[in-house]
Amino acid sequence: MTHPMAIIFVLLTFLAICQAQDATTLPAPTVCIIGSGIGGSSVAHFLRKYSPNSSPSIKIQMLERNGLVGGRMATVNVAGDTFEAGASILHPKNFHALNYSKLLNLEFKEKDSSSGCSSLGIWDGKIFVFKTVKIGCDVPLFDKLVSLVNSLLLFIRYGFSLLKMDSFVEGTVNRFLKYYEEPASRPIFETPDEMLKWAGLYNLTTRTLHDELVDFRLSPLLIKELVTVITRINYGQSVYISGLAGTVSLAGSGGGLWSIKGGNWKMAAGLINQSDVALHLHEEIESIADLGDFYELNSTKGNSYACEVAVVATPLDESNIQFIPQISVSKRKIQHTHTTFVRGLLNPAYFGLSAVMEIPELVGTVEDPDLPFSSISVLKKYDEKDATYKIFSRQPVSDTLLDSIFSVRKETIRIDWPAYPHYHAPEVFTPFLLDDRHLYYVNAFENAASTMETSAVAAENVARLILSRYFGTKSMHSSKFSSGSHREESHVDL
């Protein structure tokens, strides 16, 4: 007669074998990512980087409505030269972007923001209320001398408030660095609110930049002029922008700024190539339906894609994607930036000047609804009578206006960017997780700030959230793509 314990042992062994077979035959999940910008490409990268080796290999499908990858990272060609048309600059402490560049062997191009030969003028529509010295210089020693003179001019006008502004920005940047700590020591967040509170940044989204700077005792003149110029250039908005976005804007005006030679879009392209992604270009998604075991994504071409995980990595604010069942997304207005490239020559008479050489290389503007542009900058000077300029404005710039600003206009390119949210404190955030299953939204973090790096930071969290919820993966440390999994290893001297 068989002993009862032996029967139990045989049954348990049989169940264990069946479970092992089920685990080994579990179909590989498919992740569909809508959007091929820095957010979508970063999600793909971090899914590969953090996926446990014991889990089935994830299949990644990427759906891009345009014919090129990169999203809001794009370039234009003027007179044979390539210029950034969208997201243009990176901060020296943007460690994800630094790691991407190192991993993909991309070449850095440093923005020469510290050169004394780069002049600034603040235009109020009638006069330049402030101008730095503008002298052509090729000798390094003379360059440094001009830079010192301009620093002195800034200090004479704005005083110690300049140092206070640097201190304010540095404190915020240091809190942001918490997002680069070892993944195993960081929580995984389902909402941007939690993510911001953990880093000590949330309160900045509840008040305006103006109020934050007033409390920090910055001078009214500095806020009215220099800070306003910076927020108008970087976000097309005034100092009443929400505090965190405004501080990020200020950080984007400092030294050590850089970009990728040939275009920042190369980061997205490289990450997609590295991450074994099935890329579908010219594929605009019009609906996402939750069918229980999977999501069905339908395109305007009539194609359907089935996936266990769906990631929206494009702003939903001006999107026509239909969700079945409906989802709740906080309403926000998108700030359009009209970028106009002109090859020609500025008209000094428009600025009340007698010679082109008197016009600063960067013309910023104060907040005035009657001013037709936010900034005009020189991108490249070919000779004394020929240059390429970049104009930022909130509204399209007409040919009539351009003909008054320029005495010569050889080529004009216009781009209307749905660039970033129109920031309004207090900000209201949509969760990263849009349902109770596996529908995710990377761009929910854009209500805090919209940059290439903040998109990468949000994407890294979303990738960890996917793996945690789908596989139960808690520790996200991985040796895959090992170039820079720690912040300390990520520093690159620019």
What report would you give on this structure?
The chain has helices at residues 4-24, 38-50, 95-103, 140-158, 161-176, 192-199, 209-215, 220-235, 243-251, 265-274, 399-405, 452-471, and strands at residues 30-34, 59-63, 75-78, 81-84, 108-110, 120-123, 128-131, 258-260, 277-280, 285-290, 295-299, 304-307, 309-312, 322-324, 334-346, 362-365, 375-383, 386-393, 406-421, 439-441. It is 31% helix and 22% strand. It has a domain at 30-70 and 262-332 and 425-484: 3-Layer(bba) Sandwich (FAD/NAD(P)-binding domain). The radius of gyration is 26 Å and the shape is globular. The protein is an alpha/beta fold. Helix 2 (38-50) crosses helix 12 (452-471), helix 5 crosses helix 9 and helix 8 (220-235) packs across helix 9 (243-251).
Low-confidence stretches: 4-26, 477-494
> Could you tell me the mean pLDDT?
89
Question: What is the rounded distance between the termini?
Answer: 80 Å
Counting DSSP E segments of at least 2 residues, the number of strands comes to: 20
Structural class by secondary-structure content: alpha/beta
Percentage of residues assigned to helices:
25-40%
